[in-house]
């Protein structure tokens, strides 16, 4: 069994496990009359709030010289919490028989806005805390994230199936949210502030952005190559 097959099976198993946990809540939402598009919108607003919080942390650091690590922690927690709505909206549509073409497009568009907001917020935060290189890496990560989705959409527009690659949206969300949360918690525990000696918790966030920057762009390139091979057969 190759690495791609093993990775896909592991990912599918985890997804099924999560569905078993959230399905009772999904059915409750359906009984309450909540539509998939409402769930999608709530998820977007939550991610937007997370971006605002981490921007506030960066703004405060730039003007006071002190990082409020609790804001960074809250940003990570909000990304984790509201990104779960990515799975909820699909399940509400599936179990409630409310799937629609517009709903799928609406979900996809707001997913892109979520990533633009959160990774853009991270880039702003890093540049305000003095990590210009980290901000550039975050921008490269954002570029790769958008291109992964764009290449798939472009390929599907040509009638191709293009879902290959490791760093898809769920993986990017996990890496971003966990790293942001870990950065904030580490900062609160250590009490580190810019200019002081010791471990800078922002390194955790920059390392996570490096992971996304490398693997998201590799995923986009792999999808381009996959599409080239499929188109070459026609």
What does this structure look like?
With 234 residues, the protein is mainly α. Helix content is 82%, strand content 0%. The chain has helices at residues 3-31, 36-64, 69-83, 85-95, 101-128, 132-157, 169-190, 202-232. The chain starts with a helix and ends with a helix. The mean pLDDT is 88.
Summarize the structure.
With 234 residues, this protein is mainly alpha-helical. The model has no long low-confidence stretch (mean pLDDT 88).
Computed CA radius of gyration, to the nearest angstrom:
19 Å
Strand content: under 5%
In the predicted model, the low-confidence regions spanning at least 5 consecutive residues are: none
Order of helices and strands: HHHHHHHH
Strand element count: 0
**Distinct helical segment count:** 8
Share of helical residues: over 70%
Q: What is the overall silhouette?
A: globular
Mean pLDDT: 88
The N- to C-terminal Cα distance equals: 29 Å
Task: Please state the structural category.
Answer: mainly alpha
Biggest sheet architecture: none
Ordered list of secondary-structure elements with their pairings:
Elements (H helix, E strand, L loop, with lengths): L2 H29 L4 H29 L4 H15 L1 H11 L5 H28 L3 H26 L11 H22 L11 H31 L2
Helix pairs in contact: 1-4, 2-3, 2-4, 2-5, 3-7, 5-6, 6-8, 7-8
């Amino acid at each position: 069994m190759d690495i791609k097959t093993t990775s896909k099976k592991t990912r599918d198993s985890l997804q099924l496990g999560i569905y078993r946990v959230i399905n009772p809540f999904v059915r409750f939402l359906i009984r309450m009359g909540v539509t998939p598009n409402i769930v999608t919108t709530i998820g977007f607003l939550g991610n937007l709030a997370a971006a605002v919080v981490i921007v506030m942390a960066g703004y405060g650091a730039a003007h006071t010289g002190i990082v409020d690590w609790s804001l960074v922690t809250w940003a990570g927690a909000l990304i984790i919490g509201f990104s779960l709505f990515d799975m909820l909206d699909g399940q509400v549509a599936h179990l409630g028989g409310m799937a629609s073409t517009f709903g799928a497009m609406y979900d996809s568009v707001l997913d892109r806005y979520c990533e633009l907001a959160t990774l853009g917020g991270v880039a702003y935060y890093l540049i305000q805390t003095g990590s210009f290189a980290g901000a550039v890496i975050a921008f490269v990560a954002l570029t790769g994230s958008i291109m992964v989705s764009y290449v798939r959409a472009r390929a599907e527009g040509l009638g191709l199936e293009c879902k290959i690659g490791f760093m898809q949206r769920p993986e990017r969300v996990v890496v971003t949210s966990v790293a942001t949360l870990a950065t904030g918690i580490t900062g609160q525990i250590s009490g580190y502030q810019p200019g002081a000696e010791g471990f800078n918790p922002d390194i955790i966030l920059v390392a996570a952005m490096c992971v996304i920057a490398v693997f998201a762009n590799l995923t986009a390139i792999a999808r381009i190559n996959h599409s080239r091979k499929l188109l070459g057969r026609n």
